[in-house]
Amino acid sequence: MPVSPASVSLIFLLCQLPGPAASGAQQELVGAVGGSVIFPLTHSLDRIDSIIWFFESTTLITIQPTTTNKPDTVIVTKNHNKERLDFLHRNYSLKLSKLSKNDSGAYSVQIHSPSLQEPFIQEYGLRVYEHLSKPKITLGLKSNKNGTCVTNLTCFLERGGEDVTYSWKTLGKTSNESHNGSVLPITWTLREKDMTFICMARNPISSNSSNTIFAQKLCEGIAGDLDSTMGLWISLLLIVLILVLIILTMWKQTRKESTEEKRMDTHPEIPNCYPPSGETAQYDTISNPNKTIPEENSVNPLYCTVQIPQKMEKPHSLPTSPDTPKLFIYEKVI
Predict the structure, then answer these.
(1) Residue 91: CB partners within 8 Å, gap ≥ 6?
(2) Distances (CA, A) of 246 to 18, 62, 241, 250, 252
(3) One-character DSSP codes across 9-26
(4) pLDDT digit string, tens, across residues 108-144
(5) For the domain bounded by 136-218, which CATH number is listed?
(6) Which regions are flagged for Basic and acidic residues bias (predicted)?
(7) Same fold for the domain at 18-129 and the one at 136-218?
(8) pTM assigned to the model
(9) Which runs of consecutive H residues, i.e. helices, occur in 114-156?
């Protein structure tokens, strides 16, 4: 279909008309729950009829500047926003306080000026985040083979888990290592020195770290098995040592008793000899048949008693009186 010269002229005129002025691409802002954020506004307009701020498609606040000393006219659409909304008088940038998760979304501002055929428009995107809680770590399936612990550690957050990045720091190896991601695979043996693992979580407004995890504590099942084995061997060794001590003690005691008995069997009896007193009991005497009885001026004989051990064979004794002890009299030889 051919286009007439009049239509071409109309299209050219429409293209020459000024459209809505814009400051550029959408600005991305972040805020923290309970905090505040400022939507910056930059323009070079001298005369402004009105400034209107929007959240999604809802009007938040309308400002009508005055050229006199009177205050500007400010209209807040919703009463619950009166304490949360404020603006900077110099350039009318908006400040939003007491942020909540529901404040995340698209914001925009329109500036109407007599020098513009269309309003000046600036767009914003706001994301409100929670401060991260302390990350926690869960232990995956653990394999213990030949003193080697193989498992996975998983880092997670109980709250504030939007746009969170995880990383790990491993301390204890020849060089400290880092790992990105919420899951950390580990392999550790008892021959290695203890290692520590720390999970770090970050979002656009905050960061937090987990408690330190020790490899030895994490793989205590391996250490427990080896410790129980060592404990068993130590217990057995102690039992053997106690038995050896008991046997040695019993052997020494038996040897001592045997030595004492042997000494009793081989020890000769020494007769108890004493000279006669003024009055002495009557004893049977044995005189030496080969010697004559000494006269009165001869040396008095010694009287001796002998106790015969039970294990020694009794010598042939002479008949004695049943009421008198068996005694022997030996002459003292000078």
Answers:
(1) 41, 42, 43
(2) 112, 101, 9, 6, 10
(3) HHHHHHHHS---EE-SSP
(4) 999 998 888 889 999 999 999 999 999 999 988 777 7
(5) 2.60.40.10
(6) 259-268
(7) yes
(8) 0.56
(9) none
